Amino acid sequence: MANVVGLRLSLPLPLPVLGSVCVCSSSTFATTLSRPSTKKLNCKVKGPRRMVLGLGASFFSHFMTMAGAMGSKFFMASAKITGGSSVDELLKNYEWPEQFPFKEEDFQRFDETPDSLFYEAPRFVTHIDDPAIAALTKYYSKVFPPSNTPGVSILDMCSSWVSHFPPGYKQERVVGLGMNEAELKRNPVLTEYAVQDLNVNPKLPFEDNSFDIITNVVSVDYLTKPLDVFKEMSRVLKPGGLAIMSFSNRCFWTKAISIWTSTGDADHVMIVGSYFHYAGGFEPPQVAVDISPNPGRSDPMYIVYSRKLSTA
Ligand SMILES: C[S@@+](CC[C@H](N)C(=O)[O-])C[C@H]1O[C@@H](n2cnc3c(N)ncnc32)[C@H](O)[C@@H]1O
Asked: What's in the keyword line of the UniProt record (predicted)?
């Protein structure tokens, strides 16, 4: 696979380069997501990976069209992430085009073998660095209901052995849904778990209006049917319930969707925002930009969140 990365790097990069890009693990057997250290800069592929994958149509053209449709107020390639002054504005009053701008090919992956194979062996590792995890935990402690609030239920989607909740945090019901049972079994915050491949079956195995909060940490990029999943999230959230999608700039690139691996952090904010918007049933999505404590030095941590409409 290292050769594949080399091949990618040797390709010309004719399209606009984003301020920040996904730094992705190159191995199908990767245990964790690779870190953006300077030593690994050669793993940073700035450009349209789908050219390599031969998947054709460009994300940029979708968003150029979107930008065009709204009078070219901005183009995301110019969006600056760290420092947080412009990306956090990206979703504010965004006028989305009528149609979901992505196509089937945007959700293809380099590795289309069943996810159950990729996630068969447990990975008892963390996928982002400690400062990024601490920032996420701190964020949760601000927005979560207090520990042990009667009647509160939380769903951690794409869960594993860790959910990054505040230490000792408890609720009556905390469900983890993921691919690896051994990981889920070991997660101390969960009161129950479900093993389900959302790319095979996006229907969440829960009643309507069940959860106060849904979290998804560094995994929204693996969803190949995101609109179906986000519709389901809306269905199972209680009215006013909060969905928090967090991500960094790393991924298992063979398993991440093409539109994600070929774009940068600002685009990822827009992509996740678009899922909320086009799924329906949510308030306009909002973004918390790089909440990590040392932008540029520790892993970035972005949050795109929304509440289920109280009338939905
Ligand atoms: C990078 S790990 C992140 C795990 C955990 N959220 C964390 O923060 O450490 C990706 C997670 O997404 C889950 N996942 C990947 N593909 C999935 C799918 N098709 N359906 C359900 N979960 C999936 C895996 O089980 C895995 O736990």
From this structure: Membrane, Signal, Transmembrane, Transmembrane helix
Domain residue spans of the chain: 129-247+263-307
Locate tokens 């079994």: which residue?
185
Instruction: Pick the range with the lowest mean pLDDT from 44-48, 112-116, 139-143, 250-254.
Output: 44-48
Pick from 117, 179, 196, 244 the residue to mutate for probing ligand 1's pocket: most ligand atoms within 8 Å of its CB.
179
Cα–Cα dist 258/37, whole Å: 23
pLDDT digits 0-9 by tens, 66-103:
433 333 222 233 333 444 446 667 788 888 999 999 99
Pick the CATH number of 129-247+263-307 from 1.25.40.10, 2.60.120.920, 1.20.140.150, 3.40.50.150: 3.40.50.150
Residue nearest to atom 8 of ligand 1 (CA): 217
Looking at ligand 1, which atom is closest to the CA of residue 180? 25
